[in-house]
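Protein record
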Amino acid sequence: MLSTEWLNAFAPVGSLRDQGAWVAHGAGVFFHKPPVLWLVTANHVVEQAGIESVSVLVTKSGGGNVIVVPIGKIVVQQGLGWIRDPHNDLAAAPMPMAAEFGIKALTEQYCIRLCDLLPSMPCFTIGCPYGLHGLDPTRANPLVLDGVIAGVDPERRRVFTSAPTFRGNSGGPLIAVRSPFSTDGRLWGIGRPTVLFAGIMIESLFVPSEIPGPANPPLHLGRAVPVDAVIELLDSEPARAVCARVSTLPISCATGATPSG
C-alpha cells in the first residue's frame, strides 16, 4: 500500500484551456537530485501541453485546496528550459518550491534499477487515465492502478506491466514492490525500502491475437522507461547546466523532504 507521503511525490501534469479549465495530459514525478527538485515526466506530455503552457497540480500544504503551478512559464521566464531525452521519451524541469506546496520528492534511495526488476513483482501505475486527475477535488493525487511486472527487456531498456494503462498515464511513475525476503526465503531487506520507483510510463501497448475475433482480445500491457534512464538524464551535462543556473536565481528549486517507509 502506498502512503499519503508517497502519493504526494506524484502529480497531474497538464495545461489550462482558454476558458480557464485545467486539463490533464499525463502525470509526473517529483525527484530530488541535489541541489535541485525536478519534475520528471514523459517528453510527449510536455509537447502535447506546450513547453510554455505546461502546468502541474499540487495539493496545498495542510490540504483543502489544489494549486496550479505554471512550471512551463516559470522555467522559460527564468531562462532554464526543459532537459529532454526524445529517445527514452523523458523530459525534466526544475520545480519551483514554496511553503504552501504540500509535496514530497523521491531520491535515488527509493529507486530500483532495471537489473533488479523481476517478472511477477507487484507494482502500481499512477497517472491520469483519460484525463481523470483524481477523484478528490481537494487533493492533487493521480489515480493508482495495480498489477505486476509482466516482463523486462534489458536490451531495449523497457519494462512492461500488467497494470491497466491508458492515455493519460504517460509521465507517471511505475512503482515496484520488492519483497523483504530473498528467493530462498531468507529475510534480507531489513532497513531497506520495499516500495521503489522503477520507471516512467510512456505508452500502452496492444498486442493483437494472430486469430482475430471477440474470443481473442488483444493483450494490453503498459510500457515504461526504467529509472536508470531518469537518473542518467538528471546526471547529464544539460542537467548540470540547469543546476548551475538555478543556484544564481531568486527562486527555490530544492527540497529534502522524502517519503518515509
About this structure: Confidence is low (pLDDT under 50) at residues 254-261. Residues 237-246 form the longest helix (10 residues). The helical segments are 4-7, 43-49, 71-77, 227-234, 237-246.
